[in-house]
Amino acid sequence: MKRGYIVIDQSLCKGCGLCVEVCPHQLIDFSDKLNIRGYFPAEFKGGEGNPEGCTGCTLCGIVCPEVAIEVYRG
Amino acid sequence: MGKKVLMSGNHALGEAAVRAGCRCYFGYPITPQNELTEYMAKRLNEIGGIFLQAESELAAINMVIGASMAGARVMTSSSSPGISLKQEGISYLCGMELPAVIVNMTRGGPGLGNIAPAQSDYFQATRGGGHGDYRTIVLAPSSVQEIVNLTILAFDLADRYRIPTLILGDGMLGQMMEPVEFPDFTPLSDLPPKDWALRGAEGRPSRVIKSLLLDPPTEEEHNWKLARKHDIIASHEVRYETFWLEDAKMAVVSFGTAARIAKGAVKRVREQGLKVGLFRPITLWPFPAKELRELSKRIGYFLVFELNAGQMVEDVKLALEGRGEVSFYGRPGGVVVTPMEMSRVIASRYYQKRLS
Amino acid sequence: MDFKRVFGRPRSLKRAAFHYCPGCGHSIIHRLIAEVIDEMGMQGRTIGVPPAGCAVLAYNYLDVDMGEAPHGRGAAVATGLKRILPDRLIFTYQGDGDIAAIGTAETVHAANRGEKITTIFVNNGVYGMTGGQMAPTTILGQETTTTPGGRSDSRDGFPLKLSEMVALSPGVAYVVRTAVTGPKRIMETKRAIRRAFEIQMEGLGFTLVEVLSPCPTNLKLRPPEAWRWVEEKVTQFFPLGVIKDVKRGISPC
Description:
The complex is a heterotrimer.
Chain A: E1 4-8, H1 18-22, E2 28-30, E3 42-44, H2 59-63, E4 69-73
Antiparallel strand pairs in A: 1-4, 2-3
Chain B: E1 4-8, H1 9-19, E2 24-27, H2 34-47, E3 50-53, H3 57-69, E4 74-78, H4 80-85, H5 87-95, E5 100-106, H6 122-126, E6 137-139, H7 144-161, E7 164-170, H8 171-175, E8 177-181, E9 208-209, H9 216-236, E10 240-243, E11 250-253, H10 256-271, E12 276-281, E13 283-285, H11 289-295, E14 301-306, H12 312-320, E15 325-330, H13 339-352
Parallel strand pairs in B: 2-3, 2-4, 4-5, 5-7, 6-7, 11-12, 11-14, 14-15
Antiparallel strand pairs in B: 1-8, 6-13, 10-12
Chain C: E1 4-7, H1 26-40, E2 46-49, E3 65-67, H2 74-84, E4 89-95, H3 96-100, H4 104-112, E5 118-123, H5 153-156, H6 162-167, E6 172-179, H7 183-201, E7 206-212, H8 216-219, H9 223-237, E8 241-245
Helix pairs in contact in C: 1-7, 2-4
C-alpha cells in the first residue's frame, strides 16, 4: 500500500476548494485561519510530513490551480 | 553594380528590398501596388525567401510582427485603405521597438477613393494613424532610382534604431518606368546581429517582447525612452534636397511626385527670369524643420504644393514658426498636375506677391 | 520509509504567484503546457504567443521566449515566427474572444494554410478580463453582462463552434476538445497538448486544443460548482473528444 503526504504552500492558496473536493480520503479541509492573501487556505489534515491515510495519489496537486501542493510518495 | 535597367517603381522597390537582405514579405493585393506584391512572390520564390499572401492587410502586418520578433528583415506593402488596416500593428511594432519596412503607394481617398496617385496619406504616415505616442521614420522618394536608394536605407534605419520605417510613395511612382542601377546584394552574414530577438531560450534566460506596461511610471519611462530615440533620429537622419534656392525670393516646398512636377515647373519659371527655388523634404519624419527655418531668414515666401487638400503645409508652417508667408496649392483625389500647369500657378503667385 | 516527491512545480513554470481568480482554469493549463515542454525537453526551443485577456500575463508564468500579439492576431504573429523559425515549437495561447471573435479570420486562415503551429484555445464562455461580457462561446441561456436574461439565439446568435469549423480544412492535422474540470479531464488535456506539440514537430499541419475551462467569478459559482456547470451544461454545446486526427484517420468530413 503506497503511503504519501502533501505539503501545501498556504501563502499561495486561494481557498478554491478543488483539492478538498477531489481528495479520495477526505484528508484536506479549509483552515479556520486566514492566510496572507485573505483566504481560508486548504490544510492537510494529516499534518505536515505525516503520511496517515494519504496514498500520494497526486489528485490534489493535479487540480490545484496555484501549484501550491507538493506530493510525496514512498 | 553599374548596369542600368528600365524598371517600374514597384518592381525596383522589390528588387532593392531583396538586395538589402530582405528575405521575408507579407502582403495583400491592392491597386496600385500589386506589382510589388507579385514581384516579391516571384523573386523570393527564386532565392528561397518567405513570401506569403495574407488574408488581409491586417493579417500581413501581424505576420510582420512575428517575423520581426524572430529577427528577420521583413517588409509589407499596401495602399492607403490597407495602410489604415495596419495602424494597430504599426503602433504595436513601435511599442515593442521592432524593425520593419512598410510601403504605402498612396491612392486617392478617403474611403475607397480611387486608384490614381495622391499624397493624401501624409498625416497618416507622419502623425501615426495608430494609437499612442510614437513616430515612424517616413521616407518620400521622387524617382525610381531614389526608391531603390531609400528602400535600402529603410532597412538599415529600421534595424539601427529598432523602429518601423515607412516608404511613402504613390501610384505614379509605383507604375512609372525609369532607368535604375542596383547595388550589389548585401550578404546576409553582414546584417547587424539582433541579440534581442526571440529564437528560443536555449543557453540563456527566456525573454519577452511586449508592449504591455501596466504600471504607469514604467509606461511613462518607456514613452520617454522612445522620445529620446526619436530625438536622436531627428538629429542624425534628416534628409532633403534643394534646387535654385541661393538667390530665390520664393521657395516651392513639395515631396515625392509633387516635387518631381514642381522641379519641372520651377525650371520653366526660372527660364522666364522668376527667382524661384525648390525645397524637397526626403524624410517626412524627421521633418527638415530646422533647415526650413534657416531658409526663412532670407526667403520670405513659401508655396507648398501637394497632391492633397493640405497636409505637409501644416508642418511647413510649424517649422517656420511664423516667419515668412506660406501659401498652398493642392490637388487631391488623384489629379496629377503637369509641370506646365504648375508653372502658371507659381508665376501667378509670384506676381501677385510682387516678388520681383 | 523513503519518500520521493512525485508532484510539484515544473521547471518551465516560473516561481510566481498567479493573478488568476480562485478556481480559474488558466493556471492549470499553464502548468500542463510547462509539464509537456519539460517532458519533451523543448524549453530552449519554444516560443509562445500570449493573448489579450486574463492570460495576457502568461509570460510572467511560462519560462520560455514569448512575443505579445495584438488582440486576436496570435495566429498571424505565430505564422511570422514559424515561417522564420520552422524548427522551433511555436504555440499561441488564446481565449474565446481572442480566437473566435476578433481573431476568427487570422485563426481560420492560419489553419487553412496548414501553418505548423499549435493553438491552445481556452474556452471559458465569457470575456473575463473586461468584466464578464458575452463571448462567441457563451452558451444559450447563459447570463452575462451583455446578455441580460441569458443569451438568446434570436438576439445574440448561437455559440460558435470554431474548432469544428477549423477542422474542415485539409491543412489542419489535429483538433481536440478537452476540459480541465476534474483530475481525469486535466490529464486528458495534458495528453492532448502533448500530442498537438508532437504533431507540430512532425510537420503534419495546424493543431488546435480547445480546453473548456471554468470562470467561477463570472459564472458566479464556487469552483467545484463551476466544474459541474462545464461538465453538465457546456459540454452539451461543445462536446468533448477528438474532432480531427490525421494520424488516426479521424476526420469530420
